[in-house]
Design brief:
globular, 164 residues, Rossmann fold, single chain
Length: 164
Amino acid sequence: MGDLAVVIDPGRAFGTGAHATTRACIELLARQPRGRVLDAGCGSGVIAIAAVRLGFDPVHAVDVDPVAVEVTRENAARNGVEIDVRALDARRGDLPQADLLVANIELATVAGLLAARPAPRAITSGYLVGEAPRAEGWMRVATLELEGWSADVFVTDDDPGRRA
């Protein structure tokens, strides 16, 4: 993957873009068919901003933390990209429709999001190599391991592409 320039000031939100899980999610994101993206647990917005830069549209970002929402909006403006950012608990809220879910958060929350099926395809991370979310109706089609962390691509039977 070529270099993707994203300027991030994490402020008080989680995520500078340097962590292995974030880098793995972005690398897997670059390989996906373009379409609508939902970044659940957006933190500083780095993955959502990268999605826009990679050609995904529209891009939605949600986080339960209002500070993260504010920081994501600021970072989107700093990078000159448009993202629909909302304060929302992704485990309980009415999520925007998407073709691809990206969730770089703790394992139990990832599993809950997959069970909710907000998209037919998902990139998940935030857990160690050897761990993986379990959710009925999903098939893992790709895994990327970096520095002891794992990121996965999952698809459902509803995914028209069904490829990694």
